[in-house]
Design goal:
This protein is an all-alpha fold. It has one helix at 2-42. The protein has 1 helix and no strands.
Length: 43
């Protein structure tokens, strides 16, 4: 019984991490695009 609870909590944790990773990548990509644009204007 305890084993099932552990597996479920691990799955929930992984889903949580994946969600954070997705939003982090999205914001990183936005910032990268902004930096590239700034560099491009300075050239």
């Amino acid at each position: 019984m305890m084993f099932i609870v552990v597996i479920e909590s691990i799955g929930a944790f992984l889903a949580f991490v994946r969600q954070i990773d997705k939003s982090l990548r999205k914001s990183l990509k936005k910032n990268l695009d902004r930096v590239v644009l700034l560099c491009y204007r300075n050239i």
